[in-house]
Structures
1.
Amino acid sequence: MRPGSRVKLALRRVLPGAVVAWAISARDGRRLRALPSVGVEPGRLRRLTADNLASFLRDVRIGELWNDDSARISTVFEAIDVGDAVNPGDRRALYHLVAATRPLRLLEIGTNIGGSTLALTQAAATHVGDEAMITTVDIVDVNDRTRAASASLASPRTPAENLTLLGLRSRVTFVTARSGDHLRATEQRFDFVLVDGDHSAPAVYQDIVSALGVLAPGGVIVLHDYFPDKSDICGDGAVIGGPFEAVARLVRENPDLSVLPLGSLPWPTKHGSHVTTLAVLTTR
Ligand SMILES: C[S@@+](CC[C@H](N)C(=O)[O-])C[C@H]1O[C@@H](n2cnc3c(N)ncnc32)[C@H](O)[C@@H]1O
């Protein structure tokens, strides 16, 4: 371990959590400001309104199919709120978004234990068809059993093993890489991107810029952990500010871009509430 890292670790142990969080947020703010402005092309984004989102979420047929599919998924991955995974209510919202927008090529940044991967892939299989494929990128090898975060949480298996059990493995390509490196190298274009990787403001800024760069016309970009105005919408004090800071800067730089938080879902999410931190990017 480098001497600087040892000092940081020691400071984290003695300083109160709020001071550490403030210091991290201040550092991320400086790093975000240090990034050069990037011209993006929001024009490829699908134009969506709050009414569109409400109708996607309230679609009765999608809800019925979710009931069947979530029962299938829960045979391999429990419908509980665990670790860094997207909570079960948010997984259902992702399922509805895919079912309603019917993307052929999906990209997920941040596989982790594969909670969202299962919902996205099952939605693509049920609602889009045989050609629908998903690429999921994580900086760590999520299918390395010695590192798999999933043991003893929602599932004792790796994401790849769960997909195999559900007959979905062939639809998913796992990439172990930094999201930015992979998106710069890929020639693929995507109809649906979930941004749920590194949540620091500069990283989310760069992930959104990269996602817009690989987006097919009419594509959808969904963000997780978007806390509007960095307010404590989940009521547990665990506010993640990076996605909001990143989007605020992108919207300042690109006035055509806008963000639609999903707000309150028709079903529970965390701590008995219906609030979600999911949001979609769109154009004005
Ligand atoms: C919040 S978790 C994702 C949760 C996941 N969507 C789920 O529902 O299980 C964030 C993940 O992003 C990964 N990550 C962090 N920085 C990254 C980067 N620069 N590129 C790709 N993945 C990254 C982490 O390893 C972690 O697994």
2.
Amino acid sequence: MNRMTMYLATFAFLLPATGAARAHAMLDHASPRVGSTVQSAPGEVSLWFTEKLEPAFSRIEVRGQSGKRVDTGKAVVDTANPAELRIGLKPLSAGTYKVFWHVLSVDTHTTEGIFTFRVAR
Ligand SMILES: [Cu+2]
């Protein structure tokens, strides 16, 4: 491969990859933070994504160690920020909680993920 061919091959490979990555709604950050330990029980879980979400097809489930759901049922997209999704929580006792999210971004791609946080007391 000469230098020009190599350059073009690299460019052709990178373009669609970065385009697709930018289009998907990936988790940017969360509150409580991914993998964190919080000192007191949070009243809600908030997730910030890299893309705007379709509220009707975006959800969060929060479960305790027994697998029982501890969220209040329905995740809502923030009215001022369409890339923020959050859900209320029942009063949490100390322990580890699992947050499962499944979202549809406005470009019609679904993504999902899971993380945990711990309540110290
Ligand atoms: Cu996408």
